[in-house]
Amino acid sequence: CSVNNMDTTEAGNDSFGIDVILSDGDKPAPCCPHGPTLLFEKICKGGERGRRFYACSACRDRKDCKFFQWEDEKVSDARLLAREAENHSKRPPFNRDEYCGRLRKFASLPMDDKKFCQDCQILLQPEDHEDHSSHRVRSITVAELQRPSVLMLPLDNKKSNAQYLFTDRSSHFLLDTLAAVGYRKVLCVGTPRLQELIKLRNLEQKHKQMKSLLLDIDFRYAQFYSQEEFCHYNMFNHHFFDGEVRILQTFLTEYDGEKVVMVADPPFGGLVKPLANSFSLISRTWKMQKSETGNSDMPLVWIFPYFFESRILECLPSFTMLDYQVDYENHPLYKHGKTGRKQSPVRLFTNINPRDVVLPKEEGYRFCSVCQRFVWTLNKHCHKCNVCPSKDGREWRHCSTCEKCVKPSWRHCQACGCCALPDHPCGQNQGKGGCFNCGSLEHKHKICPLKDIHRVRGRNVSHHPLFKAKAKRKSGVAHRAKKTAAALV
């Protein structure tokens, strides 16, 4: 998505979108419970830049994190104290050292005494049992301790967490592929399932041993992993909550040919620009830990929907989108399927040589000798475009007028001079050009900053514009009065 769905009515009627301004480090950003905030800038009519403001880096809805501050705003001492108190109240119940102490103590308990509180989502110590006596507490097994992502309830708020977990199919494919290419250390950024699979395989001792480090904003994983295995981390602002950047630095150091690769699975509503910046900062840290110098970037697999391809390539032009369809266990739509619309739209974006990523033939992939990469079986090579063009799993067709391949459901429109859906809003901007999505004459719909503003994990949750006139917004009192009047009719 383009930007947090924050209730920024302050932006006014002349705003068309919001751009994120990456900090140069000269001026520290104020903090919310999710770490340093991001600086945003309004994009107004005619491409003019509007007033800048700070907002939460992780949450896309002001209901989930209400932080808002104009860049040039003077904040009173009282407000700063209240903000710090709120940030402190939302910290994890234990610090990192306390979590490690609890983990060591929990590991020494007899199996009958190992309990888990389902209400609080916490492993219990013997002294905790009385405080949780009225909660749903149950015993847990060794197998459950090895799969915390299965034991714990996923954080399924799509607007702030969107914690969807890989299926075993996708987890095994990713790990097998990375091992085949020669990687022995995996930095798991928001991929707890991959971390679990690595540790389970190491216990089986049937594969070469691999090391892993999980960076995740879900602090609950701290109770299952040591300090060398987990860091509480926000990938949108590259913030380590417990100042554990040294753990990352140590992990990225390659000894005895232990090649490092990063696998990142961000929330799909996240901003591409700050994510790419965080991954670039990790890559820079990796370069600093290497003994030999070079211009190569850290190997990275970024898992994201295919419709973000242009934005990712704009930030990371060396990347390639692969055809492999990633599916999720607890998502109703993002499943691997056999036909176009039933397929998962989630793909792999990587700077690893596409030829080295072998996609499974038994799942419907084949090797294109011209493109030198593996593609989906319906992704037929177009000799006019000299590329395998399909992005969504369907067989695309070539339009001679547009001189490019388009989706099979699109038809060429003479009035618009391009291919589009048959029922597209033809001629809305005829003679004016510009964007038919927001009305701006400064850009086309393809790069409209509001195009995917309300898209959440592949579906639209709202078609209302981000900014509304203040006069059109009903107050809470007016809204309740309207509901009361309707109930009396």
UniProtKB/TrEMBL annotation:
Keywords: Cytoplasm, Metal-binding, Methyltransferase, S-adenosyl-L-methionine, Transferase, Zinc, Zinc-finger
GO molecular function: rRNA (adenine-N6-)-methyltransferase activity; zinc ion binding
Domain GRF-type: from-to ranges: 32-74
Keyword Zinc: yes
Localization, UniProt: Cytoplasm
Gene Ontology cellular component list: cytoplasm; nucleolus
PANTHER family, per the entry: RRNA N6-ADENOSINE-METHYLTRANSFERASE ZCCHC4, ZINC FINGER CCHC DOMAIN-CONTAINING
Protein name: GRF-type domain-containing protein
Organism this protein belongs to: Mola mola (Ocean sunfish)
